[in-house]
Amino acid sequence: MPHTVLYVPVPELEAYIRRRHVVEGPEWLSPDPAHVHAHLTLLGPFVPDDAVTEDLDAELAALFGAVEPFAFTLGEIRVFPSGLVYLHPEPTGPFESLTAALATRYPAFPPYAGEFAPVPHLSLCALGPGRDLRLVGKELAELLPVRATAREVWLVRYAERGTRTLRTYLLGREET
Questions:
Q1: Among 97, 131, 132, 147, which residue carries the largest CB count within 10 Å?
Q2: Which has the closest alpha carbon to 159: 73, 17, 50?
Q3: Which residues contact 90 (CB under 8 A, 6 or more apart)?
Q4: Are 8 and 148 in contact (CB under 8 A)?
């Protein structure tokens, strides 16, 4: 079902994540070659894409414009109980603060629809036959740690064969 998500893009890991999507979920690849699939989710699912109004756009621009860009590092590979492999960011505080602010401002859209506690992470892949933690570590050995700076938040429409960026919000400035 199509939905929107607010996330921090991580272009430094796009090549790896795009390759994983080709194998594990090609239907979620954006047709836009500039789209960054590698990300840390702040809030999702969020509003239906037809509910993105000028007022909502202005609210989000103001909220994110009041937050300064911040540096983070992705270096530790972890696994959720479901078998989803992810990178844990350090520090987690800025991501947790943004998620909490969004959840407070938009209580009708709890993180992960209230199914899971919001844990800052960058999803990598799922464990399964032929894909274990050792292999994932080997694939990422030359990429990690990733040192990045969160400078913007994207509002993305997720839909099979229709994932695309709807809006970009700059941190530290009230522009879109």
A1: 131
A2: 50
A3: 72, 73, 75, 76
A4: no
